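Subject: complex prediction, re-run

Hi both,

The earlier run crashed halfway through, so I resubmitted it with identical inputs.
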Amino acid sequence: MAVMRINVGPIHPSTHGVLRLVVDVDGDTIKNVEPHIGFLHRGVEKLCETRMYMQNPSYFEKLDYISPMSWDEIYVAAVEAAMGIEVKEAAQYARVILLEFQRIANHLLWIGTLCNDIGQLFTMFMWCFRERAQVLKLLEDVSGGRMFYVNMRLGGLNRPLPQDFADRAYALTDYIKEKITQYEEVLDSNEIFLERLRGVGRLSAADAVDFGVSGPVLRASGIEEDVRKSFPYYVYDKINFSIPTKADGDSYARYRVRYEEITESIRIIRQALENMPNTDVVGMPIKLIGPNAKPEPVVVRRELPKGEGLIYMVPDKQRPYRVSIRSPAFINLSVLPKLLEGAKFADIFAVFGSLDIIFGETDR
Amino acid sequence: MDEETVEGAAYTKEQFMNAEQKMSALVEQSLGEYKKDKSVNAMFARLSDFSKMMSKDLINWGRSNSLWPLQFGLACCAIELMDFGAARIDAERKGYLLFRGTPRQCDVMIVAGWVTKSVVPRIKRLYEQMASPRYVIAFGECATCGGPWWESYNIVKGIDQVLPVDIYVAGCPPRPENLFSALMKLQDKVGGKIAGDTERNLSETTRRAEGEGL
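This time it finished cleanly. Structure:
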């Protein structure tokens, strides 16, 4: 049969943003997929060079608008490394707790939208957003912002934690733990869900390493790699947690890895809450920051919800001279044509949705 | 002021009263004809007269209570748009929210996110595919004025340079509640409760933007 070229996007309900896919199909079988990105490009790295150090976090938060705090933290950590500033011990625990809550919120939204993409319309979406709203409420009360927090300051946070923070965080972890068991009951016994995801978009471990994918996509291919374990930061080395991995490498494995990461995050949060000292967490005020930067470039690696994020920053006196970003979503997207070789047309969004791509980050 | 005439008015009060009497007589007469002729065709004729009289208000009432937004998100604000339709706010309980994937079935375009130069032709195309009357909500700072990306080289400083915008929503991102109030305001505007022309074509700014080849 003749090969037909079909254009998907750039504005499409299931592309989670603005992605254009040019798909060559033979009948219903995909021959080739070519992603076109760049529809959200606005030059973040260049804009960062024109701003003072602590004006930049709000740019970084808009890279990944599903888990903004993790990019906020990685940038502030880079500035801390450039200035040689130590983070207060209580603030280290507080950051770990907040980042893990942010990871939970990210994975909840991901499960909801994945179910929408594969045709399980709105039930899971409503459930996941119900739980995510509770997480966002806690983060809002901690930081002051509902979606964009900008609550990291050099050496700590922007304000003291609320009085009842620990109680509320415990209650919230209990709540989420109870609710996600319901997800498991609904999804893992759902024939349609399993049929749509099992054996679709298989990524072998060797390919995963070759493409340089990271995060849950890598771990679903059977490679146990996590920056929180291999290059521990903050108090992750004092916390007992495991890295969920799956050997299959298909879309269902990626779902299971993310699902189990939610329970691991709950474990981390509870241990951090137990060990957190009851001391000050507030960091430096913004106006004191600036002229002490060392001239050496710094590199900071973090395990973001979507994969391994990295910032390379060359500091200058008042503002960064150069900031370069390694976006996990961009590199995970590069594997899409490989995953879709020989798949059916309807699998595009079952595979694409399982990669957890965000276009603020890929296009920057 | 004279008792009989209103200053500056085109008709005297007497003329106005006479006209009103004539009108009511005509209505009486037509109703009488309807009472005599009870065929179905006549009934439809009456109905069409009635709908002609009521059409503007009736259609606006219908339009304002069935605003279907386009399922279309660009960036961060689209996440709040999802939250808007999700469990906490649950916008569908107000009856005017059914996010559709195709522009041909939609009345409202909610531009949620920053608008880059490369995405402008796509947005314009979607807007042109929507059936008239169509309404645009600029949701968030970026769609309103460019927001934090004002100095960027690839950003259109507000969707109102390209499309005629009906409602602006401030915030970065606005809370879902803000979108709720914006849609209620749009309902008022469409239903004629607040000032605003409902039949709109491409504005002057759009034509200018087209001239510049945006």
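Chain B has two domains: 13-61, 76-211.

- K.
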